Prior knowledge:
This protein has helices at residues 12-27, 51-62, 83-93, 104-113, 128-141, 158-170, 186-199, 232-239, 246-252, 271-274, 281-300, and strands at 40-45, 66-70, 96-100, 118-122, 149-153, 173-177, 202-206, 217-220, 256-259. By secondary structure, the protein is an alpha/beta fold. Helix 1 (12-27) crosses helix 5 (128-141) and helix 6 (158-170) runs parallel beside helix 7. The longest helix has 20 residues, at 281-300. The model has no long low-confidence stretch (mean pLDDT 95).
Amino acid sequence: MKHLLSIQDLTQDELLALLALAKKIKADPGQYRHALDGKSVVMLFEKPSLRTRVSFDIGINKLGGHCLYLDQQNGALGKRESVADFAANLSCWADAIVARTFCHSSIEGLAKHGRVPVINALSDLYHPCQALADFLTLSERFDDVSKVKLAYVGDGNNVTTSLMFGAAILGAQMTVICPAGHFPDGYMVAQAQTLAQQYGGKLTLTSDLEAIEGHDAIYTDTWISMGDSTALTDIKVRFSPYQVNTALMAKAGASCFMHCLPAHRGVEVTDEVMDGPASLILQQAENRMHAQNAVLVTLLS
Length: 301
């Protein structure tokens, strides 16, 4: 690993190694207290954030490193100063760059023109850190994550794409259930299908909610992605049958509910499910830090 730009860039061995390391760091954080001694990480954020910013900042500190946060007060990435110049300058001081951007091309530019590892903390195409935390969470609940049957319900977005890649590489089964016209990008789906064939996974896409039956976990996300100006009223009728509620959980026979947060309670998921015994949302949130720490240790050790 030189960077973490997308889950699809990882081999199965690399992905399993990251999950295993994350479990070790979570179980014995003291052992890694000085893993990043003398290391400085710059975080570039074009988007607002709770879990990503806090989990990276505190996680880097727990590893003995130093974190510097930069927001858009310095101007949008690539506007005030080119991405290439930004990356080259940061590489003079920082040991790694964590970036949360609107355009994935900005992430790629940082990796191309910088001389230090770059971690994608979210772009319009991918959310690899979230997917790592999600599969870490599932691996804590199931003995063999490759046997997990995961259903994603709702809008096909960057989280969906990263989950598809992760499930495919791990050899797991994933069903993506979206309203017509709201599936993940077709090119991404084709790449995920290729990975699933390579590693023994299974990926199914459908609009039929009957396909929810027989899954271990149901995952959903907001119906409108961050930065999308579409009014909720414009899509609510189309998406309302895809709300995750107690009836859908029962129909699936699922023992786990997952959401990357923030959630619109009472919209894509009900309070009963969000706060119910099947909900893994806080375990996922905590595991963002452990998964990201595993990436940092791997890239910087």
